[in-house]
Design brief:
Chain A is mainly α and 247 residues long. The first copy, chain A, contains 9 helices and 3 strands, in the order H-H-H-E-E-E-H-H-H-H-H-H. In chain A, strands 1-2 form a two-stranded antiparallel sheet. In chain A, helix 1 packs across helix 3 (51-63) and helix 4 (96-120) packs antiparallel against helix 7 (164-187). The radius of gyration of chain A is 22 Å and the shape is elongated. At the A-B interface, helix 3, strand 3, helix 4 and helix 7 of A face helix 3, strand 3, helix 4 and helix 7 of B. The first copy, chain A, binds a DNA duplex (30 and 30 nucleotides) through residues 13-15, 39-41, 49-53, 55, 58, 69-75. Chains A, B: InterPro entries: GntR_C, TF_FadR/GntR_C, Tscrpt_reg_HTH_GntR, WH-like_DNA-bd_sf, WH_DNA-bd_sf. Chains A, B: GO terms for molecular function: DNA binding; DNA-binding transcription factor activity. Chains A, B: Keywords: DNA-binding, Transcription, Transcription regulation. Chains A, B: Residues 12-80 form the HTH gntR-type domain.
Chain lengths: 247, 247
DNA sequence: CTTGATTCAGTTGTAGGATGATATGTATCA
DNA sequence: TGATACATATCATCCTACAACTGAATCAAG
């Protein structure tokens, strides 16, 4: 009883299709956490593909932390909370709702990180941050380049916290946002989405130099809220908090 | 000229090892974006594994968006900005005893999330949080069980923010901490690392019920700082902030 | 009946070859 | 010169076989 895999216009490879199918079944709850998947043999028959293809699909799901395979036993669906890795697919970023959530998360992470960085930054951190700032405000306002510099600026601040987890997480979120913007420009090239407000960055940098955590946090918060607005995302009840100084 | 793959204590599967090896080469810049990888044949000879193994490794890297394979041509290293998805692997983060950093990140995420949750929580969220709270303070203080309930409590709060990214990130961080504790107990079984302070949790819950963001944030911050201390982690300059009320 | 070791079937992990599909370069020819 | 056909290289898929491991059934000994 072969099952037709969605053969859409996409020329996606077979393993990807199989993985997507299983992934949907898991997300939709048809395959509850803890249940065992059919054997590779059965899956290969069900989908009408070779066992190799099934294996690659399962390897992918396993890398995503959705399932766990035990030799000699089988493959089991994992609960979301026990997944060992986070993965956000590019597909999931194409609507503004997600952008909103991403910016919200970014605001939380970066605001406090800026405060930490203000306390802990060393001279080499300040130098690196300054370099990114210069690149950003530099001669040419080449779009991609200035966005790169912008992200570098934020990553360097995260690095200055001395906490590698924070650095990793912020890099991750920033990269997601960059991709979203990149994609948005492709679909709507007229709209200039470049968001490089040098003034806001300078304020952050000055607070870091001064070693003032509260000022750094406030400046970063204001900056991210502003950045969100400039790309058309309104942070819902952005918890103005002590952002009273807002823009 | 076979190349020894790092055969560490871990019994990781071969595809994972190959993928990790290539991944490091890419991240370290030895393989620049645009570069073509050796053919599957060459890689299988180089590592002394079958092509199937190489294929699964490449499939994994491709799923992570690090490389792109074109049929009939080869596999190419992608630049970070053209990656279609990004992943944070738990394995890559647990190199040392960085509980400190984990707790610091957790503090940042959860404190603000608690504030958001206080504003947005619905009745069903409160019910779920209450249920976890009851399980925690319930009859039996079975270690694993109460830890599960503890984590559930925190995850439910994250869910109440309505931001799936926040939920994902906090779940991830909590899971990492749980594993670290689990591992620590294995190596040091004498030390009782169970950390379930019901009182602190109750205070958080009450703030959520009251819909008071500031109180929720303060309570959560105090709780996580306390939790860190109870497992022997001193948050360095935990940025007491408005946590003046701390224990 | 209980207990323990052994065997056996089932499943994933790995190996290696064969064939199809696709892109690229090369040689031939008008 | 330009276009076409061919040859080659590579990935994609399929196939079979075996190794490693697990869990349960079987069976013998007490």
């Amino acid at each position: 009883m072969k099952q037709r895999l969605a053969a859409i216009g996409t020329v996606e490879a077979l393993p990807h299709r199989v993985a997507a199918f299983l992934s949907r079944e898991i997300d939709s709850g048809e395959l509850n956490p803890g249940t065992r998947l059919p054997t590779e043999q059965q899956l290969s028959e069900k989908f009408g593909v070779s066992r190799n293809v099934v294996r690659e699909a399962i390897a992918q799901l396993r890398a995503d932390g959705m399932i766990e395979a035990r030799q000699g036993v089988g493959a089991f669906v994992l609960a979301p909370e026990q997944r060992a890795s986070i993965r956000i697919d590019g597909e999931a970023l194409k609507d503004t709702e997600n952008m909103e959530r991403l910016f919200e998360l970014r605001c939380i992470l970066e605001a406090e990180s800026a405060a930490l960085a203000a306390e802990r930054r060393g001279q080499e951190h300040l130098d690196a941050i300054k370099a990114a700032l210069d690149r950003m405000s530099g001669e040419e306002r080449w779009e991609e380049g200035s966005i790169d510099a912008d992200l570098l600026f934020h990553r360097e601040i995260a690095r200055a916290t001395g906490n590698s987890y924070i650095h990793t997480f912020i890099s991750f979120v920033c990269e997601q946002i960059r991709r979203s913007i990149h994609y948005a420009r492709l679909t709507n090239p007229l709209h200039d989405l470049v968001d490089v407000n040098v003034g806001e960055h300078v304020r952050i940098y000055e607070a870091l130099v001064a070693g003032d955590p509260k000022a750094a946090e406030a400046a970063m918060r204001a900056h991210i809220i502003g950045a969100a607005e400039r790309v058309g995302v309104k942070l819902p009840a952005a918890r103005a908090k002590h952002t009273g100084k807002g823009k």
